[in-house]
Specification:
The protein is α+β, with helices and mostly antiparallel strands and about 150 residues long. It has one domain. It is built from three helices and nine strands, in the order αβββαββαββββ. A nine-stranded antiparallel β-sheet has the order 8-7-6-3-5-4-1-2-9. Strand 6 and strand 7 form a beta hairpin. The longest helix is centred in the middle third of the chain and has 17 residues.
């Protein structure tokens, strides 16, 4: 994976819904010595998936929205708890925002399959630590993992 693309993935800010309000976090933090200090959501397994802009090809919003709805329907049929979240660049000049799905309790194998089917470069999986996992063979070896550390944003 190109270093610029990897840096961009690690610096992406994710806004997750929780019962106590939104949690904003990125994967470019320092190693957390006490994981229990993180918000509860970031201590549990989940995947972040999107159907937007396959292989980084910009598609019309209507097409992206339709793809995103199909993904949601498939996830719900798979009996997953799914919540809308968003990924974006924090740069005030930045305009990139990508609707995504927070999929609670999804295992790595199935998350990788969704990433491949929807032609994503990579997906985010949270287990013991957050990981960017490659799902596009033209980007890198499928399943290659880049480990991050949660950084909670204000």
């Amino acid at each position: 994976m190109e270093q610029a693309l990897l840096r961009s993935y690690l610096a992406t800010v994710y806004e997750f819904p929780t019962a106590s309000g939104a949690v904003r976090a990125s994967l470019d933090g320092d190693v957390v010595s006490d994981p229990s200090s993180l918000p509860e959501l970031l201590q549990r397994p989940f995947a972040v998936l999107t159907a937007y802009n396959p292989r980084s090809m910009l598609l019309p919003r209507k097409v992206n929205d339709q793809r995103q709805q199909v993904m949601r329907d498939m996830l719900i049929l798979g009996v997953y708890r799914v919540e809308a979240c968003v990924a974006y660049e924090e740069d005030p000049e930045g305009t990139w925002r990508e609707p995504s799905w927070l999929v609670h309790g999804m295992d790595r194998t199935e998350a990788l399959a969704f990433g491949r089917v929807f032609r994503q470069n990579a997906i985010l999986i949270n287990g013991a630590r957050p990981e960017i996992v490659v799902t596009d063979p033209t980007c890198d070896d499928i399943g290659r993992v880049f480990v991050g550390n949660w950084r909670v944003r204000a």
